[in-house]
Amino acid sequence: MYETILYEVSEGVAVLTLNRPDKFNAFTEKMNKEITDALKQAQKDAQVRCIVLTGAGRAFNAGQDLGDVAGGEVDFGGFLRDRYNPMILQFQKTEKPIIAAVNGVAAGAGMSVALACDIRLASDKASFVNAFVGIGLVPDSGGCYFLPRIVGMGKALELAMTGEKVSAAEALRIGLVNQVYPADSFMEDAMAYARKLASLPTRAIGLIKRTMYKGLEMNLEETLQYEAFAQEAAGSTEDHKEGVAAFMEKRAPRFTGR
Ligand code: T3D
């Protein structure tokens, strides 16, 4: 169904694999559009309660395929507005948890996409390169939005201005990733994490995601109001009733995502 990505759903988890391993999974226009479409599909599918984004082969993603843009005049504004910006916005619009399972290097827009995910898990062979400066560009695809919010302004400016490679261990230390797992068992460990998230109250998690990201843009009063609105929605779910019932009955809850 897709040409540049693989898309599979099992046990409540949609796995979206960037699949151009000989090019380090670099982005093409088709890949940008297929990712956007796959995220929309995962949002619509009630079976899907968590999404994992990973890369085939040695890399996670090396950013824009430079072979496609080398030597020509690039309309950078149009390029981003048509291809990358809708893709990044779709990560936010998808009200389900999205995990970047960073199996290898994440560079340029590949790093930005990992930052646009809600959770980052890294193989101990993974690395991050804010490669834009190396080709005289500015971090795009949300890199200037997410990076300072995740690691703080000082570190974000350092990574963006120097383009230095960050190892998985350093990424964990600075809060760029949530967990690091051994390369040999990486996808098993990442999938176990994803299945755990998929077993939790999916609608509450979607509302947590929306409210937290909105909170970045709002003052305290507006955030309190938005929390009240989100709580009304979460409080009307079957999973809320199940969570309270399970607590009262001293048993483990069985959440269904409804
Ligand atoms: O017009 C615009 O550019 C606007 C768009 C902006 C969005 C962006 O993403 S800008 C940033 C674009 N990306 C980069 O600048 C990263 C370029 N790649 C690298 O710096 C390095 O390849 C890596 C740090 C990612 C990995 O280094 P290393 O030493 O582990 O691997 P390698 O040998 O450099 O690359 C392996 C193969 O992947 C190689 O192919 P080959 O020689 O074995 O046939 C290499 O050419 C290919 N590859 C890596 N990155 C890209 C790529 N091919 C096309 N496009 C790439 N971005």
Topology overview:
Layout: E1 5-10, E2 13-18, H1 29-44, E3 50-55, H2 66-69, H3 76-93, E4 98-102, E5 105-107, H4 109-116, E6 119-123, E7 127-129, H5 143-151, H6 153-162, E8 166-167, H7 168-173, E9 179-181, H8 186-198, H9 202-215, H10 220-235, H11 238-248
Parallel strand pairs: 2-3, 3-4, 4-6, 5-7, 6-9
Antiparallel strand pairs: 1-2, 7-8
Helix pairs in contact: 1-3, 4-5, 5-6, 9-10
The structure holds ligand T3D.
Organism: Brevibacillus choshinensis
Pfam families: ECH_1
InterPro entries: ClpP/crotonase-like_dom_sf, Enoyl-CoA_hyd/isom_CS, Enoyl-CoA_hydra/iso, Enoyl-CoA_hydra_C
What keywords describe this structure?
258 residues; alpha/beta; six-stranded mixed β-sheet; 9 strands; 48% helix; globular; Enoyl-CoA hydratase/isomerase family protein; Enoyl-CoA_hydra/iso
